[in-house]
Amino acid sequence: MVYNFGGERVLEPKGYIPTAAWKLDNSHSISDKEMRIRVDTIKIEEWNFRQLCNECNYDKKLIGDKIQELVKKRGKMHNPITDSAGICFGTVDEIGREYNNKGGLKPGDKVICTTSLTSIPLYLEEVVEIDFNYAQIKVKGFAVVFGSSTVRPVPKNLEIPYTLIAMDEVGSLKKAFMLMRKSKRILILGDGLLHILLYAAVARRAVKDEGYVIAVMDKGCMLNLNKKDINDVLDPYVDNLYFTDILQHTESFEYFSDMEPQEFDLSINCANMLGGEVLSVMLTKDKGKVFFTSLISNFNTAVLFAESLGKDLEMIAIEEFTEGFVEFTEELVKSILPDISKVERIYDSNKLIRQLPITASDMMMEKKMKRVDGFMFGSEKTKQMLTEVLNIASYDCNVIIEGETGVGKEKILEVIYKNSSRRFNPCVKINCATIHENLAESEIFGYEPNSFTGAGSRGKPGYFEMANSGILFLDEIGTMSLNLQGKLLRVLQEKQFYRIGGEKPINVDVRVICANNVPLRELVSRGEFRRDLYYRLSVCEIHVPPLRERPDDIICLANSFLKEYNAQYSTNKSLGRDGEETLERYIWPGNVRELDNVIHRLVVNVKENMIMENDVILAIKNRFSDSAGADDENIELRERGLHATMGDYERDIIAKALKEEGSTRAAARALGISQSQLMRKKKKYEL
Q: Which among 480, 479, 484 is positioned nearest to 445, based on CA atoms?
């Protein structure tokens, strides 16, 4: 049976199904029960495509590199941030003797594989071109499909770009049709012209002239389109068309209250953006239905919001593949070809129509912000990291934050939390290293009354319950025992657990973010951390660089701390130029936490308002002299003189950069300094 869906192709972790596996075997040779396809085009799932575009700032080369990196790393197309991929078009290359060839395919046939690329091995030689309007990429490579994979010949007389879009919606279009036949008033909420056309055509087919259909298009995602052109495309199918900012819920609702005072029986949400679900709920009548056609939606938020409005709504998620759905989609596309041709002409006249509305990272770039939710920065390296963090924040995935002690891992947590869809729900923080092993299970999962010796008579909820619908932060997760790691894995997989002494499972919806000083991969290789738990947690990994690798942050942070302590002690201290230079030269083994401590010492101990070089040197020396159990070698190192120590360190990192990068220009770029600065330092250290 495992051959039917590719179980034998799983490399890591063994025993997983391909869709959930971390890595697949994407080798060229096939077994008797497999088929290989030469892939020409990949239709990337919309939310996945937007995330990649946003992360790479719509740079085609960067997007192509990112896609190839994902495929090389995982042996399949599987974006861990959105947990999605797409479908593909290509040519049958080779068929195994025992392949379940239900469609009678033969080598040379043009086919579309509608099975998600998260489930099948993929190898890419090259990304040739990217089409932003259709969310499609032209590639050279191959995919391996199995007996259970859905592979269909390309329908005659249909062009690939719009056919792939329709086939990517194959499960939802027929389901929408079935729902629409029982509805009189239908709302279609979307942010893409072709998607809205498909669902509007389905709606008109379902209700004919007896129903009322309106379309609502997000105006922020269709910046270059002419409203007259859009009306011309959709007019045969909708009774009214509106343009609004879908994410401005209250303002949009008030607008529709005037324009459409009667609520809708059915809302079709085909908007590939978080936030659209709120407007869908607001505009749907009590006892009505809301159908989410996209993988991305705040389904839980929609349910809770409907409850808060006192509405009893039936929430329906994206439909899986069912027999007959492909035929329905093919016939639908053929019936609306003249209007699809209009969309194609619009797309051809606009190189890039659809981009995401402005994001937090865009705001950071536009306003040249130096602080993001409490995280101060001055370096380009930190800005790039924060751009990645803000991008990840909006996707409801597990995250590992790694970095040395004191770099600001908990600050990164705050940035994620404040920019996530869970920002109005709890954020529970735990330091795993401080929980006694004997009490860890009861602390994390809670216990029923009198369930063990010493247990309270009222019982106690655990951290998972306290964090339900929010974020659970597990700091120093590497200190957790292997036994407890196994129980944590089970909760993440099943989304439920039992309290100690409990008999009923407790369901939870928690986003887990964890942090560790030592890279978890290193602990996995040493057998100190479960590999399967690591895979479950490491959907996204953020490395927070040490302060010595982002020197431009030092003065920015120092002045921020100085401002705080001046306010606390009613002082007016400031850093002299030589004091700043001394701070910049020091290597900061304790990172931001140590810098904070040194600035605090300076504000308290320096009598003058101007803090100079000797003040900084003395504060750092005293810090190490006062530290309990301070390493004698470290103290001796600093007693040699700050300048000598920093010079040795600077010389080493410059020499390493020159060796690794191969040229002074590349080395200067890697170090974040100008080439002329590097040349002066190279001469100074005789490199």
A: 484
Based on its alpha-carbon atoms, the radius of gyration of the chain, rounded to whole angstroms, reads: 29
**544 by DSSP, 3-state: which?**
coil
Instruction: Report whether 231 contacts 222 (CB < 8 A).
Output: no
Check residue 71 and report its DSSP letter. H
337-348 and 160-168 helices, crossing angle to 10°: 110
Tokens found for residue 527: 């057998």
Confidence of residue 369 (pLDDT cuts 50, 70, 90): low
* pTM exceeds 0.70, yes or no: no
Please tell me the distance from the alpha carbon of residue 117 to that of residue 168, in angstroms, as a whole number. Answer: 11
pLDDT at res. 278: 84
Residue 214 binned pLDDT confidence (cut-offs 50, 70, 90): very high
Please name which of 122, 60, 116, 62 lies closest in space to residue 85, comparing C-alpha atoms.
116
Q: State the average pLDDT for the chain.
A: 85
Confidence of residue 392 (pLDDT cuts 50, 70, 90): confident
Residue 263 scores a pLDDT above 70: yes
Per-residue confidence (pLDDT) for residue 644, from 0 to 100: 53
Q: What are the DSSP calls for 181-235, one per residue?
A: TT-SEEEEEES-HHHHHHHHHHHHHHHTTSSEEEEEEEGGG-TT--HHHHHHHHT
Locate tokens 């997760």: which residue?
Answer: 477
| DSSP class per residue in 249-286 | HHHHHHHHHHH--S-EEEEEE---STTHHHHHHHHEEE
Which of 129-133, 228-232, 420-424, 560-564 is predicted with the least confidence, judged by mean pLDDT?
A: 420-424
Q: Which residues contact 552 (CB under 8 A, 6 or more apart)?
A: 378, 379, 380, 381, 382, 672
**Which among 13, 157, 142 has a CA at the least distance from the CA of 532?**
13
Please state whether 121 falls in left (phi above 0), alpha (psi between -120 and 50) or beta.
Answer: beta
CB within 8 Å of 478: residues ≥ 6 apart: 432, 516, 517, 518, 520, 523, 528, 529
- DSSP H helices in 516-641: 520-525, 531-537, 552-569, 577-585, 591-605, 613-626, 632-639
Q: What is the pLDDT of residues 438-463, one digit of tens each?
A: 788 888 998 888 777 777 778 889 99
Q: Which two tokens stand for residue 430?
A: 């735990």
Distance of CA 106 to the CA centre of its chain: 39
Q: 25-56 burial, b if ≥16 CB within 10 A, otherwise e?
A: bbeeebeebbbbbbbbbbbbbbbbbbbbbbbb
The residue written with tokens 């942070």 in the block is: 557
